Amino acid sequence: MRLDLLPRARRSRRLDLLAPALAFLAAVLIGGIAVAALGVPPGQAFLTYFVAPLSEVWSLQEVALKAAPLALIATGLAFCYRANLWNIGAEGQYVAGGLAGGWVAVAAHGSQGPTAWILPAMLLAGTCAGIAYAMIPALLRVRLGVSEILTSLMLVYVAQLLLDYMVRGPLRDPQGYNFPQSVSFDDAARLPLLMAGESLHAGVLIGLVGIGLAALVLTRTLFGFEVRTVGASPRAARFAGFSDARLTLAVFAISGGAAGLAGICEVAGRIGQLQPEISPGYGFTAIIVAFLGRLSPPGILLAALVIALTTIGGEGAQIDLKLPLDLTRAFQGLLLGLVLGADVLTRYHVRIVPGGAGAKGIP
């Protein structure tokens, strides 16, 4: 016996909209069973995970601050994935952007002249570094046919080791008692706060602007049509004259630039200096966010908020309920699997083929 997936003749728009919500409810139900098995009341865990982070101003800000880089990186990745190209190295591009922009801040530390140029230069350097780093796997694919999956992933570790070397060597604070970190950035090299005395900074607005621009490009421009066409039907795209090589370079540039911009926003925002670790894994988590959001900028924004909410809630559950933080990561992976499974069932219906028929090759 085998299972065949047959395309549905007509797809229900209502079911398409309900599928992610049903998948989320199923994930919560399965998570509740796992929590109960660990001896914690599921209702209490639900309140800690999903309600408590929305009940305080500081926790709402934390959700926004975690969601912004995830959404920005995932939106850039959506361009690649829609074109059937697989950039798995957004984490490395994020680190490269943070390192390049942070180097500008360190070089300008203590400047006596005008300082208004520092922050724009940092953002530009971070974006350009992300683009340049993403061009390596893109060019290797276009020129040599090397798998972008392997090269982009391996370059993550190169970027992380380079950052570690720089903060322990050339960029280390000479007055930092040999701690592996740069000098603290000047005020002119920090993103402005949106509310005095709070932690919310302008990086959140940059993320929202990036999502809006991505939605506009994907839905209202010829380039967005080209991306969608190549992803849906590569042969038709080639027949229409679209260039695979040019599109590969373009979508990797967008993806890398978004990741690099997110990296420098994090360094110039929350962190305020270069350290050996400037990312809690945003580049990898953004892959989950991109697919949870169905590669659509509005969906990605919603998915980023959900992932950020569960992350903050998971940290609270670790403190208040003594639940392992790995449970949160397992829940996020489970949610992704259920959403993708729900999408499959909305597009296809399952047919059971008896073993004998399958063995004879009968369709």
Automatic annotation (TrEMBL):
Xref: Pfam families: BPD_transp_2
InterPro entries reported in the protein's UniProt record: ABC_transp_permease
Membrane topology: Multi-pass membrane protein
Segments crossing the lipid bilayer: 63-81, 93-111, 117-136, 148-167, 200-223, 244-264, 284-312
Subcellular location as annotated: Cell membrane
GO MF: transmembrane transporter activity
Record carries keyword Disulfide bond: no
Membrane among keywords: yes
Main subcellular location: membrane
PANTHER family found in the cross-reference section: ABC TRANSPORTER, PERMEASE PROTEIN, GUANOSINE ABC TRANSPORTER PERMEASE PROTEIN NUPP
Name of the featured protein: Sugar ABC transporter permease
Organism: Methylobacterium hispanicum
